[in-house]
Amino acid sequence: MTDSLSLKTATESWPIEGDFRIARGAKRSADVVVVTITDGNATGRGECVPYARYGESIESVRTAIEGYRGLLDRDALIEGMPAGAARNAMDCALWDYEAKAKDRRVWTLETIPPICRDPRAIPTVMTIGLDDPDAMAENARRHAAMPLKIKLGGTADEDIVRLRAIRSAAGSTPIVVDVNEGWDFATLKSVAPVAAELGVELIEQPLPAADDATLAEFSSPVPIGADESFHTADDLDAIAARYQAINIKLDKTGGLTAAMDVLRRARELDIAVMVGCMVATSLSMAPATLLATSADFVDLDGPLLLAKDREPGIRYVDGLIHPPESALWG
Questions:
Q1: Residue pLDDT, tens place only, 283-297
Q2: Could you tell me which residues are beta bridge partners of residue 22?
Q3: What are the residues facing 175 on neighbouring strands?
Q4: Torsion of CA 171, 176, 180, 185, to 10 degrees
Q5: Does residue 27 sit in helix, strand or coil?
Q6: What distance in Å separates the CA atoms of residue 290 and residue 303, rounded to the nearest whole number?
Q7: At 110, is the pLDDT very low, low, confident or very high (cuts 50, 70, 90)?
Q8: How many angstroms separate the CA atoms of 185 and 118, rounded?
Q9: For the chain, what are the domain ranges?
Q10: Mind listing the pLDDT tens digit for each residue in 150-188?
Q11: From CA 277, how far away is CA 133, in angstroms rounded?
Q12: Check: CATH 3.10.129.10 for 6-108?
């Protein structure tokens, strides 16, 4: 790819259906930056979600993208930009552009590794936001045909009540828990045995990232996954001593290119993989579907949390996320 490509950015806000609450607070909209790259004929798009937890904002991400002066090339981006949301949108737009320019589906390109060349419908979790136990149980009951991802982050007693209510409502539906750094170590030790009793398959990011060294000495009855503690392949060696799983999000790795490398290296280290997302539109989900068929857990339900998704969007049918149509991405 060459200097003949041009780039532009746009900011969009997509309302969330109701409030979406996690331990860190509530969101009412998905605020995204969309990058468009074109040569005048073929055009590619990528979407990212700036995340304040990582020091990002809409303004800082747009500034980073618009201030980039290197080649519009995936390798050049890896060298010239830090991992994060800005690089993600640019990287994904370049993959989409290449697929459109060559009139091929992205997973057939020679530069896509074999581990990501198996596009097919696959189950994704439905996320249940943090709320009172009855509300969470009712939400779980409505979505019990899908695996569930349960947001927690209260006291041990409060979250045990939530878990028991949800398990009772959801029957045998697979459940993972996401705490978003909301517990301390004592709470983790109290809740983990109950989670194991209730068949929870994963506890994601129970402790603040700054405190996770304590996990190296903790024999958890439920596998522990790293989200806020994990960003790029450089983190994998440290993560392997503390966690049994990682959550790969393209907004953290800085794009699909880096995420595919993370997936490969995690498999070599025998670390379980969740492919995750921010709350965003189908344009954010589409590149991540290439990772989904090689993941142990898939959390690509972002558009299902919105009041309205972009058109065309990803198809969700009977709890399965389908590969994107070329009109959307790739």
A1: 999 999 999 999 999
A2: 25
A3: 148, 200
A4: 100
A5: strand
A6: 17
A7: very high
A8: 39
A9: 6-108, 114-321
A10: 999 999 999 999 999 999 999 999 999 999 999 999 999
A11: 25
A12: no
